[in-house]
Amino acid sequence: MKKYILTLDEGTTSARAIIFDDLGNIVSLAQNEFTQIYPTQGWVEHDPIEILSAQYSAITECIIKSGLNVSDISCVGITNQRETVVVWNKNTGEPIYNAIVWQCRRTADICEDLKRQGLEEYITNTTGLKIDAYFSGTKIKWILDNVKGAREQANRGELLFGTIDTWLMWKLSHGKTHATDETNASRTMLYDIHNLCWDKKLLGILDIPESMLPTVQKSGSVYGNIDIMGAPLSVCGVAGDQQSALYGQHCINVGDVKNTYGTGCFLLMNTGETAVKSQNGMLTTIAATTQNSPTQYALEGSVFIGGAVIQWLRDEMKLIENAAQSEDCALAVENSAGVYIVPAFAGLGAPYWDMYARGTICGLTRGTGRNHIVRAALESIAYQTNDLILAMQNDAGVTVTSLKADGGAARNKFLMQFQADISNTNVICPSNAEATALGAALLAGITAGIINGDISSINSDSTTFKPNITDYERAQSISGWKKAINSTISFTKEK
Ligand code: ADP
């Protein structure tokens, strides 16, 4: 029996291909970076053709490295950077503009206009999102409004839209599959997450013809064949990166939480069949499920500056030579000696939502040294994550008892222990750090029938960090953080 799963993990900076076996072990991996295009301040684009070729050469390299034949592979899973928009002509197969990347702020004005029209509540109630330039809807509108002849072509039914999963499937199926999954659809700001359909009112407001939009399927379902090295392979799982990681971390029950500690941090909590509306500025989104399971939802919050604060220590402050060294510095001192860093370099996100806040370092004394500063920077990642956990607990009415961790900064054992201490919860780091790709692989493998529905034994090898401070110590530390947050907010507040 064929027991291998090919996973395409298409991220913001690189396209990767990973082959897993039916026990979730990595058999081989290949990766290609692609160009980040910054046409002007705040704009970010990718070349969709370059992404396709970066992805395809990663696939071929991965298969060759594995020593397997394409015919040994049972199915394909896809996970991708969410929200990024490609619009192409279905007759020529050519994109009519570069992909507009999730980070791109060019549609901030369109978003302001939607707010002025009083649509905030409608959009949040329907899509689970806040009005923001991150999401796909306003980016599609921008392309239709700004690329010469696009609107007419769209009205004639000649244009298609897709997030990167959709684009890759359409190209690799030679135009046969135009589909996406519920998790990707739920990030477009066009999808009704309760009734599971494209929202006609929003399509009308943004003037986007429905004929452009892909069919939406369950994350774990059959999407049709793609052509890999001349052979057909069935795509059986698709999920946006964060929901894929949630699934790959086995967070499939109510109250299960994962945090990805990357450049920023993405915390998601499974809320089961209930779409919880946040009172604290979190997003409500669809979680990945398989064909026969009921729709599940998740709350999502993000920390803008997570691992990026460590890059800042390295590149701008020159306090460390590499990210891993931050752990040695932090462990070289007993505590941060009352120093707090609030890395609000680009404002404060949930639950504070202060776009004008800027970073601060509080509590300096004559005895403050490099190690205290480095330690305070690492601690800031945990404090910000803890703020999200507390807000989500409030929203969902559940207590978090364990947190699954992945991403680059989850390698830092000091950070993981500090997170466990501050959040009074077990922090679990799986030894296989590829949670994002694994999620899509599991969805595909279950759908194809080579993995059974009970995934608990897959990738279960992990390290657990247990809370190890007193309630008093925790309360003292958190109270210091709150004071630092208040100072940060008041620093930029107009008098
Ligand atoms: P992304 O997917 O966002 O590019 P990664 O998951 O690759 O991010 O993680 C990279 C981030 O993790 C960087 O911001 C880096 O500073 C941070 N990082 C990597 N290793 C460590 C470490 N040992 N300690 C602290 N931070 C780290």
* Major sheet strand order: 17-18-16-15-21-22-23
Helix content: 25-40%
Task: List low-pLDDT spans.
Answer: none
Distance between the termini: 71 Å
As a percent range, the share of strand residues is 15-25%
Broad shape: globular
Using the coordinates above, name the CATH class of the domain at 4-239. Alpha Beta
Any idea of the CATH topology of the domain at 4-239? Nucleotidyltransferase, domain 5
Say how many strands there are: 23
Q: In DSSP terms, counting alpha (H) and pi (I) runs of 4 or more, how many helices?
A: 15
Give the helix/strand class: alpha+beta
CATH superfamily of the domain at 4-239: ATPase, nucleotide binding domain
Average pLDDT, rounded to a whole number, is: 93
Bound molecules: adenosine-5'-diphosphate
Largest sheet: 7 strands, mixed
CATH architecture level-2 label of the domain at 4-239: 2-Layer Sandwich
Alpha carbon gyration radius: 22 Å
What would you note in describing this structure?
With 495 residues, this protein is of the alpha+beta class. The protein has a domain at 4-239: 2-Layer Sandwich (Nucleotidyltransferase, domain 5), CATH 3.30.420. The protein contains 15 helices and 23 strands. A seven-stranded mixed sheet has the order 17-18-16-15-21-22-23. The chain has a six-stranded mixed sheet with strand order 3-2-1-5-14-13, with helices on both faces. Helix 12 (370-396) packs across helix 13. It starts with a strand and ends with a helix. Adenosine-5'-diphosphate is lined by residues 262-263, 307-308, 310-311, 323-324, 326-327, 407-409, 411-412.
